[in-house]
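Possible regression after last week's pipeline update?

I re-ran a chain I had predicted before the update to compare outputs. Posting the input and the new output here so someone can diff against the archived version. Not blocking, just want to make sure nothing changed silently.
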Amino acid sequence: MNIKLNNHFLDVKETYLFSDIAKRVKAFQAANPDREIIRMGIGDVTLPLPQSIVAAMEEAVREMASKDTFHGYPPEYGYDFLRDAISAHYKDLGVDVPSGSIYVSDGAKSDLGNLPDILGDNPILIPDPVYPVYVDSNLMNGRKISFAAGNQENGFLPLPPSAEGVEPSIIYLCSPNNPTGAVYSREGLTAWVDFAIKTGSLIIFDAAYEAFITEDKPHTIYEIPGADTCAVEVSSFSKFAGFTGVRCGWTVVPDALESNGIKLSKFWARRQATKFNGVSYVTQKGAAASLSGQGLEDCKANIAYYKRNAALMADVFSSKGIYYTGGVNSPYIWLKCPDNMGSWEFFDSLLNRFGVVGTPGEGFGANGAGYFRLTAFGSYENTIKACEFFKTL
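New output (post-update):
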């Protein structure tokens, strides 16, 4: 074969971070078949779907079994009943997001990876540490990436540089942040929105973890004045409703977003209609059920369960004087490795000593070196066991 390939894929690391972790854990299990493994690495939910959501999906399946209520191809942008439910969710957060600006998808990760399809060769600015898909999807398209350093000094919440002389860029922000669990204040997000407006930049805002926010922090970037003129927001049912294995999310592309007289929504709608065939009716009925009534209450109960796990870990690290972010408004704990250990060194230490699996910070960027991510998505019982181990660090 002598075809041309997209050689920009060579710019991406050959193996995905979590694939490397899985290989190490598999080797450990092979060598220690009797050891218990406590998985606190991948941010995957473990509680089952709430029965209220299952009931809505079961009813949708029954509709699919009848000729009169059968549904074929779904609308590319989502059924109106779900777009309206998401719009109502934003109203509950105090902002107005019209249903027509909401595009339902099979998850935030897909949309984050697909948004570069409609964007040209712009500079990319991404905080580091960072969720890998932001970086990898742009490397695959040959984009030039620069990083805003997150560190202990700024609480892993970097602010924008001076706007003077900066060319228009694509800016990725995530709050609550994955991997650090840090959450921007209104002042912090306002600084980024002002920077984007002054420089003619676009913010891609990842709000997948907003349901975990307890304190008075913005749940959506559209709480910030002017954000609808400079920001796309991506969100998900994965963590909120436990849909990691079901797959459903959405992206908001405000009508006010324009570049050179072209509405960004026009390009995104065309991209979705061409390359995406929509989310199943059954899935969307379950997603809609999660946003109101008993479904909403059940989802909040599951989130409270995970937040209790996070609080357990936070209490241990606070008592031991180990620096960390997250744990309050997020299901993640981002801690500084004890005794100046490297991230992978600490990974091996936790695995071999305690059978605990976490995620080395280096996998999230250069500024993750010496740090470590733990998730609260495991069981309460396993979290208690892990905390007993952490007390000996």
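Follow-up from reviewer: compared with the archived run. The first strand starts at residue 38 and ends at 39. Marking as no regression found.
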